[in-house]
From TrEMBL:
PANTHER family for this protein: ACYL-COA THIOESTERASE 17-RELATED, ACYL-COENZYME A THIOESTERASE-RELATED
Protein name: Acyl-CoA thioesterase 19
Gene transcribed to yield this protein: acot19
Family according to the record: Belongs to the C/M/P thioester hydrolase family.
Annotated catalytic residues: 242 (charge relay system), 334 (charge relay system), 369 (charge relay system)
Acyl-CoA thioester hydrolase/bile acid-CoA amino acid N-acetyltransferase domain sequence ranges: 21-151
Domain BAAT/Acyl-CoA thioester hydrolase C-terminal: 216-424
Amino acid sequence: MDNKRPCPLLSVAPRRGMLDDGLDVHVQYLLPGLPVTLHALIHSEDDDFWEAFGHYVSDASGVVHVSEDACLGGSYSGVEPAGLLWSMRPIAGSRTGLRFRKIDTCTPIEVHISVYDGHLNEGFQKKSSLASVVVQRWYMASGIQKVDVREKGLKGTLFIPPGPGPFPAVLDLWGGGGGLVEYRSALLASKGYVSLTLEYIGLVNADGKPYNVGSDYFEAAFTVLKQHPKVCPERVAMMGLSFGASVTLGMAAYSSVIKPRCVICINGSHIMPVNGSLSDVFDAIKKNVKNTRYDEEQRIIWRDLLLPVPEDPLKKVDMGCITCPVLLIVGEDDQNWPAKESAEDIKKMMKRAGNSHLLTVLSYPGAGHLIEPPYSPHVRASNFILQETKEKVVVLWGGQTKPHCLAQEDSWHKTLAFLEQHLYSNTAVVSRASL
């Protein structure tokens, strides 16, 4: 660079923000018309490295502004302000079958963003950057209280916003992979909702024997959440992804205890209704194991296990029993659950039952199964541990990177608007203090 020119300046705003804040990346004091590469790198808690990069050319003033200038190539292209986040992928040579998931919600994701001379596609660690900056992205805002929940046989984590409350609340259910997944609940609490994320698959008793979870487990969780002193008891929602969506629909339709104000279902199904023991549901699904398919890379496709959509009403949730607003989020390229076919049948059932006014469907072409909070890296397939045998397999989730990530961003903002409409509107007693 010319010694008389200032050193290149890389600025990113906000430097410290929430996961869904996006990015504003700006490079100044470059030579005019200079080809450069912007590179983002994350070192995950699983000790893997994820990266994204984009090729740009500085303008006549020596400036690159990512929110206005087109990326000419790399892990994304076009004018994509947050492309350096959502197009993240494991670096070359990484372990196969990786999926990015935040484990410790009390710490941020640290994103190392650098600008390099020239259009690079690899070897970033061996090059010297023109400028670098580290930004933080948090799932949990300052002041959020995180509480382990172990009462009534439950295993979960409660996130409570700061302030006196009472607040609306969300019971947050993940899918068939099991485990206690906290990051979405932490983000919901950061938006003003007491959120309880619940582990319910693969649980064991004190003696190490499998614990057969049933409706009473979810009813106990809903009751614990509703009775919390920081919660407005009449304004509790349920949110589920994958099998968690099936649980959500079953509980909303049949439970005499769970009466959610609204429900959100992400890539789930009403087929094989959850109304009693989960083991009964899993046994019914296993009867269709012959419908398992594999792609050319021998990745498992499970979407056909619930197809064709049965005509027998006893094999589906009675959607006519749903009395609260329902938001269905559908990835049309879901290769794990028949989300699209299920949504179409749900729409027909609710129309026949006269409650279609309660249904909102967001359907996204090119989106796969794992629709997560915005700017989360898309993975089309990843490793999966089978609960019964503990065998590791590779599951095809589906989705194409750009449409999937745009679906994540759009559906998240519409989810927040849906919760705002049904949990906050006309609620003078509900507090948003200190958020």
